[in-house]
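help with this.
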Amino acid sequence: MELLIKMSLHLHLFFIVAMLVLGLINVFISYSEKAFLAFERKIKFLMPLYYMCYASIAFTGLILYASMHFNASHTVYMMIFAWVVIFVMSIKAYKQRKKMDANDDTLRVAYKRFMLQKFSFDLFLLLIVGMLSSML
């Protein structure tokens, strides 16, 4: 049991760091890429990796939560809240992407701006929750 908890914790932290790195790459792409088609191609490549890390964080978090006998603390609530907020923002990004017309430049600019804000907020939220949970 001890080995499962250690491995889950290490995987949980690994996927959090991987999500932070992918988020930084996405912010850089959103900020620096001027051509929309190149931006979209790069984002479409990185998004499955980003969401795989996101799902892995949820899975390893559930394993750790079960190993704590489902005793919730304030850090668990913070992490669940951060997970839900990122999930809702991802749904909004997906909906905004589906509404976008291929030739409408105003929607493209709005989508790029939203993705930059989304990834920046995801990074901010992950860092804040990570720092607060390590301090408490």
